Amino acid sequence: MKIKMTDQSLARLKPAESRIDVTDALVTNLMMSIHPKGKKIWSVRYRADGKRVKMKLGEYPDLTLGDARRRAKDVLHSVADGENPAYDKRRAVEVKSKTRQTLQISNLLELYDQLHLTQLRTGYQARTFLREFARDFGNANITDFTKQDFVGLLNEIMAAGNGTKANRVFTHIKSFFGWAIGQGYLEHSPCEYVKKPFKEKSRERFLSDQEIKWFWQVTGEELEPFGYMARLLLLTGQRLSEVSRMSESELQGRDHWHLSSDRTKNGTQHDVFLSDAAQEIVWRDNRVAGAYLFSTTGYSPVQSYDKPVKRFRSRMNELAGADLPHWSFHDLRRTCETGMAMLGVAQPIIDRCTNHLTGRGMSRIYNQYQYRNEKTEAWQRWANHVKGLVS
After folding, report:
1. What Å distances lie between residue 64 and 14, 60, 72, CA to CA?
2. What is the pLDDT of residues 71-86, one digit of tens each?
3. What is the DSSP string of 302-350?
4. How far apart are CA 390 and CA 207, in angstroms?
5. 237 close to 306: Cβ distance less than 8 angstroms
6. How far is the C-alpha of 389 from the C-alpha of 391, rounded, in Å?
7. Is residue 257 within 8 Å of 335, Cβ to Cβ?
8. According to the model, what pLDDT value does residue 155 have?
9. Which residues does residue 170 pair with via DSSP β-bridges, in sequence order?
């Protein structure tokens, strides 16, 4: 049906059981569709690429009669110039949608992992500290993440009493945005001018002999895999990242664990000569089968340590009947160092046991095995002390 459209004539058009299409007598191919539920939709019809096209313009009265006529004329002029406005509009929406999907934080984090984190020795740590960021903001567009969002996330972690963790999250999110800028995904970082939320102090915490007794008891209640892992941390004094990712391929004998340079924090290869007690853990028969010595799956190393160490601390507090000073897995490394010193082990030997750089240049390279006997004796002396405490 064709009518001379005015606001009055359009107001008189009432919905029926089926859709009614009315064309404008003034602008060719401008059409209004009156739907059974009362909606009145503007569209324009034309032919392009040998096909009939119906392009939606908007809803009346939000799009007035005058504006609908102007848009219809613009569309028809574009068609006369050889264009297909409906297709172009659809393509623009698709491109915009694809662009937003590309800029989605979860997608960029995946790309960041593939292109950057996989190249880092500590990439797995970054993944751990980016987990909450991905959970809370993964569906957001990277350009929509604000400084307030960043500070808010850090404040939440601080409010939970995890100041050190807040600092690590701060560092890794800031690094992610620095990478995104370098890749051209945005111009400015929302992390700019934000300071680390927590002032960390140099830690001096180590477990006393009595605390070692309680520690050994509570880890015995949950041996596989975290109890065994915690005990090996104490016995060897190695870093959490090194022990937790210990693999069969690194064992070069029953008492010899070799860490290549890409597995150590300082980039220097390191040899650990296992005490009798450490060997019992490393060569146990009841672990989850697989390449990694501490695993819950068999195909990947353990990765989340917060809950196990919290359980150990809680049980130690119960045994002590009081809240003991806070300790972390890293403090087991300091406990080993302190214990060796109290047993009379020379500091240069302790440094070599824990892979602290004490030599210079080529002397470090050519002296890999010079202190094997001294290191072996130091680890065994410390293990004997621990065994004497817990037996």
Report:
1. 17, 6, 12
2. 999 888 888 888 888 7
3. ----HHHHHHHHHHHHHHHTS-PPP--HHHHHHHHHHHHHHTT--HHHH
4. 14
5. no
6. 6
7. no
8. 94
9. none
Tell me: the pLDDT tens digits for 344-373? 999 999 999 999 875 544 444 455 556 899
Length of the chain: 391
| Strands (E) located in 25-154 | 30-34, 40-48, 51-60
In angstroms, the CA 174 to CA 200 distance is 18
Residue 363: its pLDDT value, please?
47
Instruction: Give me the pLDDT at residue 367, please.
Output: 56
Structure tokens at 216: 């050994």
Is there a contact between 76 and 46 (Cβ–Cβ < 8 Å)?
A: yes
Order across the sheet with 20-24: list the strands. 2-3, 20-24, 30-34, 40-48, 51-60
State which H helix or E strand residue 240 sits in.
helix 240-244
Quick one: pLDDT band at residue 163, thresholds 50, 70, 90? confident
Backbone angles phi, psi at 157, to 5 degrees: -65, -40
Q: How confident is the model at residue 228 (pLDDT cuts 50, 70, 90)?
A: very high
Pairing of strands 2-3, 30-34: unpaired
Spatial distance between the Cα atoms of 215 and 223, rounded to a whole number of angstroms: 12
Contact indicator for 67, 61 with CB cutoff of 8 Å: no
Say how far apart CA 268 and CA 100 lie, in whole Å.
Answer: 43
Residue 259: pLDDT over 70: yes
Distance CA 149, CA 154 (A): 9
Number of helices (H), then strands (E), belonging to the chain: the values are 17, 8
> Kindly report the CA angle at 296 between 290 and 302, in degrees rounded to 5?
95
Question: How is residue 190 written in tokens?
Answer: 């929302």
For residues 27-52, give the mean pLDDT.
89
Can you tell me the distance from the alpha carbon of 188 to that of 143, in angstroms, rounded to the nearest whole number? 9
Average confidence (pLDDT) over 232-244: 96
Main-chain dihedrals φ then ψ at residue 159, nearest 5 degrees = -65, -25
Spatial separation of the C-alpha atoms in residues 30 and 261, rounded to whole Å = 73
Contact between 77 and 85 (Cβ < 8 Å)? no
